[in-house]
Each structure stands twice: as C-alpha cells, then as structure tokens.
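tokens incoming
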C-alpha cells in the first residue's frame, strides 16, 4: 500500500476510522460552494448510483458490503472472535463490518502525530477498540448511565468520552469482552447497533424534548419510531456512506441541523400548525457544505415517511464509486434543492408536501447550560464537563447523585454537555453543588462552556495533535488571562473554541468562532511540531449568531500548541477593542483586517 500525505487519500481502513463526531470525507478534487445549484450533467464515469448505473459494485467496500453486509458479523464476534481472540478477526470484518456494531481499532500508544500520514494502517492500530454506545435523542435513564459506568470501569480502563453527537465512547475494549458488554447494554435498552458504518447513525434530538416550556412540538415519539423501525433494518444497512439525522422541536434549534444529512426543525405553519422544516445535505469534514432547506413543511404524521424517503434517495441515488464523494451533500450540490424535493415527492412519497416557512432565528442558546424551568414546574439543569471527558466512576457517581436528588432522567447534547431533568425546585441548588464536586458545572466559565474537542491523538488513528489535554489546559489559562474582561463585563458571551486533531472536523472547526485544525508545523531546526491552522468566524444558528456560516482562514495563520492560549487571548482582545456596538465575535472576525486576526 502506498504511503500518502495527510491531506490526500489514505487507505480505506484509515480513511473511514472515526473516534468522535465525524469521519474523513477526504477529497482532493474541487467541490463547488455549499450554495451552488448546478444542472445535472452526464458523468465522465458512472457514479455508482443504484437507480442510474445498476448495483454492480465499483470499489472494494461496495463488494464486501454486497457479499456479506455489515450487520452479519455480530455472530462471528460472539462465536468466533470473542472466543479465539484478536488474531482470529478477518480483515474485512476488522476494518469494515465491525463499524456496523460501533467498533474501531484505536491508535497504538506512543506514535507521534508526525507519523500519522506516513505509517501504514496496521502500524497505527492497536489490538484494542473504541466502542461507541448509541444514544438516540441523547435520552438516558439513570439505570442506563450506571450500566455504562460499570462497563467503563470493568472493561474500558475507566474511559468515557461524551461526543458532540450525543454518544458515549469507551476505549481499551478487548474483543473477548464485547459479548458481555452487549449483554449488559441490551439488558437496559441500549446498543451499539449501527453506531458507525455506512448506515443511519445516531439520531440527534433536542435534549429538552417533551419538557421545555417553549417547545414547538415534541419529537420524542418520532425519534423512537425511527430508531425502533429502521436501525438494524437491512433495507438501510448499506448506504453509500454514513448518514446523519437531527430532529428538534425546540426554537433554539439545538441539534446543529445545518451540518446533518437530513434534519427536521420545529416550525409553526400559519395554516397547518406545528410541524417541521426539512433540511438536507449538510456535512463538514474536508469539504464542508451546509444543509439547504427544501422549502417543504412536514406534518408530524408524515415525518417518518419523509425520513424514509430522503434516506432511500441517498441509498438509491447516492454516489458509490468514490468513497470521498459518497456523502449526500455531493448529490444535493449536483441536483439542487428543487430537483431533490421533486424526486422525494414524485418517486418516494407519491404526493406533494406543502410549502412551509423557515423557522425564526433562535433567540436563546441551544446548549441548555444552566438552570431552567420545565413546563411541569420542575427544573432541568445543563451541566458542563471539560470537553466531554468523563470516566466510568464519574458516570456511576452521577447516576447515584441524580437519584439521591429525585431525578431519574438525563440527556446528552450535541455540545458535549449533560442535561439533568425533573429536578424539584428545592433540590436545584443542592444538586448543582453536588454536580460541581463531580466536575460538572452548571455555571461554567465562558471558556469551559464554549470549548469542545475531538478525541485526538490519544486514541484516534487519523489525529496529529493531542486535543483533550490541550483544550483543558487552554481553558484554565484563558480563565486566568481574560479574567479582567469577564469581571469588567466587557466579555459576556461565550466564544466557541473548537479543537480538532486532524483536518476532518469531528469537532466542527469550520462552524466555530475559533476553529483549530490539527497539523504538524515546521520549526527553524526542521523538526516539525504539533499545531493548528486557524478558522475564524464560523457559526451555527443554535450556537452563537442566529445564522449558520463557515469560518474564514487567514493565509499563513498557524499556531503551535503551546502558543494557543496566547493567540486566543490576543484575538479576543482585538475583538473587544475593535468591535462595533452589538457585534458578535463571528461577525467581527469575518469582516476584520487580517492583521487584527494574527
């Protein structure tokens, strides 16, 4: 296998490895802007669209997916691999089908970031696995949380990371223990089924579904129906690539819908009442494109059918020949929203959808941090771990603490946060204090609240930079360096700092106020050092500026890891000094002179 540069294509097993929210969409070819709407044209080569080109596989991944689908390997895991050990695992299963059950080999320890692009995949991977637990809608009961904590303690060296897709990931998993882990998870209604792979991934859902006083509609039943009916369904177990869903009925638009393949966003139609606004074709990675509205209103009673229709379009018309163009965003870029809607209605629904209004811009943050009254008079508490890093003992203790304070439900969020539900008024402050002792702050600093990080080089085979420790250190240092701006009231709103270990945007770097893309940087002595390329001024509707947009890069602006706190301090102080009245950081950064961003 030929060794390649990091910016180019890698082998299938490395290119498709993920350890957090997203995986590589590596694509060296030119891709039009996210808003381009181009007329369809004949392809120089077939795209591998099943309804156009037939189902004959055009690459090795499509071959094994058709010969023996990803769902098939569970029996082999339970009856062969768990009995005979790591060396008994076939390559196709290890680097392919295991994903359908939430398993990836993790990075072998001690390999520095400079070797990520030069070593072969088998030199990077360890004999241990990352295991992703699927949590649709982020909904957990305390008994489920306790089981996850016990699994982490017993089988994962205490590891537990909360991702920005509402999952919990464990590390150091040995294949021999996977059947017992599944048994424990499934005994409380959890699973790892299709947590990864070319399938419908975890369904993002509003963390305050069914409890928020200002909710437009409750998507809980819809999320449950989609999960129960279609996760593990062979009809949708061989999609061209991964497929991400987001559903919310909350006006804060709290599920980052602009960067999902299909999203349903709560809206009130002036004549038809509450329903959903339909968005399609969002995804980031190395070729970021924001989703586009189809202009269609989706009534709650047809929402599942619409999801099936959009998913079926991806299955039947998605590009399968080249893995790096196999996401739905590329099909939408070629078709445009008008044709996509027409195909959806004519070929898959059999009827037109009503035209619908766009949802209003959010007026409140979508991370739900803090203390908020529920519609039943009780309270929910949004608490912040440090960049999603938890542990098995923390999860177990959290379950105990919640139950001791009368709460038995919680939600994970797309912002690496935890929301505790159903807290009686007289238990709020005691619970806030207990959470704080556990390392979960309901009143975090601006920097702790707004910083997220991917898994990074600690476990990810694609990563170049240590992210979790770097982010935690940066938070501590920024709290100290910028305390004067916070204390004086000059800095009152969080500035999103998203730290990613490689170019693939698991931590959504293009949609952050300050997004940091891990890379190796040259030094005067010629020995490369870990650092970041800087993206500035991105945002999502639910996060910081009321509308979505991709950030800008400044030519030559790169920051070494050790320089990160100093750089952030410098650019934040430039913003405070140069902003117009009411101007957000993102608005300022997009318009600022390059010199002010250095």
């Amino acid at each position: 296998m030929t060794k390649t540069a990091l910016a180019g294509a890698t082998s299938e097993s490395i290119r498709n490895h993920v350890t957090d929210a997203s995986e590589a969409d590596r694509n060296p070819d030119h891709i039009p802007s996210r808003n381009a709407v181009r007329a369809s044209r004949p392809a120089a080569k077939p795209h591998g669209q099943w309804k156009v080109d037939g189902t004959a596989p055009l690459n090795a991944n499509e071959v094994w997916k058709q010969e023996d689908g990803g769902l098939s390997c569970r029996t082999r895991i339970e009856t062969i691999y768990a009995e005979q050990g790591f060396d008994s695992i076939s390559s196709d299963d290890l680097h392919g089908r295991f994903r359908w059950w939430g398993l990836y080999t993790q990075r072998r320890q001690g390999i520095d970031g400079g070797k990520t692009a030069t070593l072969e995949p088998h030199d990077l991977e360890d004999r241990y696995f990352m295991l992703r637990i699927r949590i649709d809608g982020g909904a957990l009961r305390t008994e489920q949380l306790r089981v996850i904590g016990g699994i982490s303690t017993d089988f994962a060296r205490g590891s537990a990371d909360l991702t920005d897709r509402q999952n919990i990931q464990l590390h150091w998993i040995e294949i021999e223990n996977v059947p017992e882990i599944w048994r424990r998870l499934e005994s409380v209604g959890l699973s790892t089924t299709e947590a990864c792979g070319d399938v419908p991934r975890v369904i993002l859902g509003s963390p305050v579904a069914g409890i928020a006083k200002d909710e437009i509609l409750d998507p809980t039943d819809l999320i449950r129906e989609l999960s129960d009916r279609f996760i593990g369904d062979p009809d949708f177990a061989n999609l061209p690539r991964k497929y991400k869903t987001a559903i919310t009925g909350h006006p804060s638009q709290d599920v980052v819908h602009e960067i999902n393949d299909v999203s349903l966003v709560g809206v009130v139609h002036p004549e038809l009442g509450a329903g959903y606004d339909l968005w399609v074709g969002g995804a980031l990675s190395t070729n970021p494109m924001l989703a586009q509205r189809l202009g269609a209103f989706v009534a709650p009673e047809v929402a599942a059918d619409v999801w099936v229709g959009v998913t079926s379009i991806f299955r039947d018309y998605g590009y399968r020949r080249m893995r790096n163009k196999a996401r739905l965003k590329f099909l939408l870029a070629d078709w445009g929203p008008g044709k996509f809607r027409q195909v959806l209605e004519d070929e898959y629904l059999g009827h037109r959808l009503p035209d619908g209004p766009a949802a209003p811009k959010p007026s409140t943050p979508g991370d739900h941090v803090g203390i908020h009254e529920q519609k039943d008079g009780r309270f929910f508490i949004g608490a912040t771990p440090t960049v999603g890093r938890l542990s098995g003992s923390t999860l177990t203790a959290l379950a105990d603490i919640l139950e001791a304070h009368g709460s038995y439900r919680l939600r994970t969020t797309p912002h690496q946060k935890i929301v505790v539900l159903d807290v009686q008024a007289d238990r709020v402050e005691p619970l806030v204090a207990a959470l704080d002792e556990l390392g979960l702050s309901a009143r975090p600093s601006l920097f702790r609240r707004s910083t997220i990080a991917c898994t990074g080089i600690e476990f990810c085979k694609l990563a170049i930079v240590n992210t979790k420790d770097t982010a935690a250190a940066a938070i501590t240092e920024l709290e100290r360096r910028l305390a004067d701006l916070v204390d004086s009231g000059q800095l009152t709103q969080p500035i999103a700092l998203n730290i990613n270990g490689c170019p693939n945007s698991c931590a959504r770097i293009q949609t952050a106020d300050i997004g940091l893309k891990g890379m190796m940087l040259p030094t005067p002595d010629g020995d490369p050092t870990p650092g970041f390329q800087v993206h500035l001024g991105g945002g999502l509707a639910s996060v910081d500026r009321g509308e979505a947009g991709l950030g800008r890069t400044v030519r030559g602006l790169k920051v070494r890891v050790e320089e990160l706190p100093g750089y952030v301090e410098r650019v934040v102080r430039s913003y405070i000094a140069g902003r117009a009245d009411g101007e957000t950081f993102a608005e300022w950064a997009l318009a600022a002179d390059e010199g002010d961003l250095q």
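note: DSSP finds 19 helices and 20 strands in the chain.
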